[in-house]
């Protein structure tokens, strides 16, 4: 990578980063230019930190490319009918020009943090406040390097502010990168307050957030080197967070679904977020110009199937068993159900070969216990309530119900998509005529599939249902502490504590507000596992249930060195092409091409 580009972008884009910082973190004061001495001022340090946070929104969480890289090519996600970067999903023909989301942005943010740390040591603030500001910069530098090292392995390592342009660069060994990450997070955890403190409000970094990321770094490095000390460090840090959850204001909601209630985005289960807004004073484009590659939060729409165009109420099954869409639609696009990007779909295709032949990963493996586990119904839509008064006559083409009727918006179900077969579908449930359309799993494909509802944003203006979401993207939740602690315990051979930690999450998932106390008690008992149930595959299935579509899956499979085996076992599309080399993404070719002096920057194997 050409470091003069990093330097130039750090300066040319820095003013935009200042302006794009999040209101939840601090109130920025954009500057027209920046020089190293600017970091000697409190406003310069704050502006730099705001830039580090803003880059998360600009380049990663909520954007299309990054979301695809985190979900595509795994065991629980497949390509939707409008997927972009299809090679990420199948690995067929993947090369160094595919992907690379956030690579250059990470180095812009890292260089800015280096400036804060290098020149901000003497800012005119009391020692405690200055220490907290520098700790924020260390956390953000570690955040970016940790993301880079997980995705790319060996990466350029720079811990000083780049002020002299150069056309050369080298990749540092993974071990060296982890040393910086762990030291930065250790320092940050020591110097940050227990809870977010002004001007870093909302869900900005604080001591337990730094400890969480530090534990995650130890766990990930432990998998790479099979280091028992790393697993022990991770386990100790994770369990300390659980023990002290009251001090940090963290806990689980009683109901799994409440973790995705917009009112709880900044609540007790949320650890860290990428804030979003659509205010043009923060550098956001005017409404109507929202695209997947911009800084908008478009996460709600990527796993959304095209419900307006595929809800024809007189659809029927053809001779080959497929669904033919026809007739007036029961749905129109609206705020509640969002914009249908159709990029990614849950892996519900029957496996074609091997031990899992005939099984659908999402329905028959991950979410198989839907009677006692509430997470399927809280993750996917099973019903779309009609939002248009569609009229159907008995004589309408392909209306096999033999009745005339008009859909009642807000009352009648326009689309019913149960996770099980229904006799009589698509127009009947058994012998009873259904006003809308019934779409059981046998009709699901890359255009018709259950939409993820966790991230939907009903707060957008009804006048423009294509508006992006202003909800924050929740990057980590407190349930992750339990499941990662269980993973560390598993690697330490402590299956008893691993099961106990997993049971906390599973027993929460058993709760339903609509259950009687006796039903909830019975569900808890059914969801409780024993130490002998704890295997790596079980842990990975549990993480799919808990974090489906939350931009964790590819990193989970890479961390646990399970990508190839899990994809071959469950993903029909990618199984023929996946290989171990793909546990690293390609260094973007555009970055490699910038190194024109000194040794050529090597590409990762397989690309």
From TrEMBL:
Subcellular location: Cell outer membrane
Keywords for the protein's UniProt record, in alphabetical order: Cell outer membrane, Membrane, Signal
Primary subcellular site in the record, as a coarse category: membrane
GO cellular component annotations of the record: cell outer membrane
InterPro entries, per database record: SusD-like_N, SusD_RagB_dom, TPR-like_helical_dom_sf
A Pfam family matched in the record: SusD_RagB
Domain called SusD-like N-terminal: residue spans: 77-212
Ranges of residues in domain RagB/SusD: 439-607
Family indicated by similarity: Belongs to the SusD family.
Listed name of the protein: RagB/SusD family nutrient uptake outer membrane protein
Species in which this protein is naturally found: Mucilaginibacter psychrotolerans
Lineage: Bacteria, Pseudomonadati, Bacteroidota, Sphingobacteriia, Sphingobacteriales
């Amino acid at each position: 990578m050409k470091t003069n580009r990093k330097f130039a972008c750090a300066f040319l884009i820095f003013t935009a980063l200042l302006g794009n910082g999040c209101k939840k973190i601090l109130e920025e004061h954009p500057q027209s230019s920046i020089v190293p001495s600017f970091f000697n001022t409190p406003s310069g340090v704050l502006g730099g930190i705001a830039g580090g946070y803003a880059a998360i929104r600009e380049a990663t969480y909520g954007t299309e490319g990054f979301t695809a890289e985190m979900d595509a090519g795994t065991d629980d996600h497949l390509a939707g009918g409008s997927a972009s970067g299809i090679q990420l999903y199948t690995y067929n023909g993947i090369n160094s020009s595919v992907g690379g989301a956030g690579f250059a942005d990470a180095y812009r943010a890292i260089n800015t943090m280096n400036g804060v740390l290098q020149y901000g040591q003497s800012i005119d603030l009391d020692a405690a406040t200055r220490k907290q500001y520098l700790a924020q910069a260390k956390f953000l530098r570690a955040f970016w390097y940790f993301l880079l090292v997980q995705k790319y392995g060996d990466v350029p390592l720079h811990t000083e502010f780049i002020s002299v342009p150069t056309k050369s660069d080298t990749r540092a060994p993974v071990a060296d990168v982890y040393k910086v990450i762990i030291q930065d997070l250790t320092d940050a955890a020591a110097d940050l307050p227990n809870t977010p403190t002004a001007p870093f409000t909302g869900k900005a970094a604080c001591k337990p957030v730094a400890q969480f990321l530090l534990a995650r770094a130890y766990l990930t490095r432990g998998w790479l080197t099979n280091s028992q000390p790393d697993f022990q460090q991770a386990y100790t840090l994770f369990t300390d967070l659980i023990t002290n959850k009251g001090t940090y204001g963290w806990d689980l909601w009683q109901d799994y679904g409440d973790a995705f209630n917009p009112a709880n985005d900044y609540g007790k289960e949320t650890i860290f977020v990428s804030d979003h807004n659509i205010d043009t004073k923060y550098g956001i484009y005017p409404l109507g110009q929202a695209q997947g590659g911009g800084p908008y939060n478009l996460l709600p729409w990527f796993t959304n199937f095209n419900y307006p165009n595929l809800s024809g109420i007189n659809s029927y099954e053809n001779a080959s068993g497929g669904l033919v869409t026809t007739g007036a639609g029961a749905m129109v696009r609206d705020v509640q159900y969002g914009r249908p990007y159709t990029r990614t779909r849950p892996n519900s295709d029957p496996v074609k070969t091997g031990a899992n032949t005939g099984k659908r990963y999402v329905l028959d493996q991950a979410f198989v216990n839907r009677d006692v586990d509430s997470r399927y119904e809280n993750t996917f839509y099973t019903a779309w309530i009609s939002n248009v008064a569609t009229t159907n006559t008995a004589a309408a083409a392909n209306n096999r119900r033999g009745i005339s009727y008009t859909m009642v918006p807000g009352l009648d179900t326009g689309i019913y998509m149960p996770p099980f077969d229904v006799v009589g579908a698509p127009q009947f449930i058994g012998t009873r005529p259904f006003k809308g359309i019934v779409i059981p799993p046998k009709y699901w494909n890359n255009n018709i599939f259950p939409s993820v509802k966790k991230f939907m944003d009903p707060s957008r203006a009804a006048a423009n249902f294509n508006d992006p979401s202003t909800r924050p993207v929740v990057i980590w939740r407190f349930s992750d502490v339990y499941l990662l602690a269980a993973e560390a315990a598993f690697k330490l051979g402590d299956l008893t504590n691993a099961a106990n930690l997993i049971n906390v999450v599973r027993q929460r998932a058993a709760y339903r507000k609509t259950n009687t106390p006796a039903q909830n008690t019975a569900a808890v008992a059914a969801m409780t596992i024993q130490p002998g149930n704890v295997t790596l595959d079980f842990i990975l299935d549990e993480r799919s249930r808990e974090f489906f579509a939350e931009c964790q899956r590819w990193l989970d499979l890479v961390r646990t060195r399970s990508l190839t085996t899990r994809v071959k076992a469950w993903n029909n599309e990618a199984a023929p092409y996946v290989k171990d080399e793909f546990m690293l993404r390609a260094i973007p070719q555009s970055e490699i091409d910038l190194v024109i002096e000194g040794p050529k920057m090597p590409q990762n194997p397989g690309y």
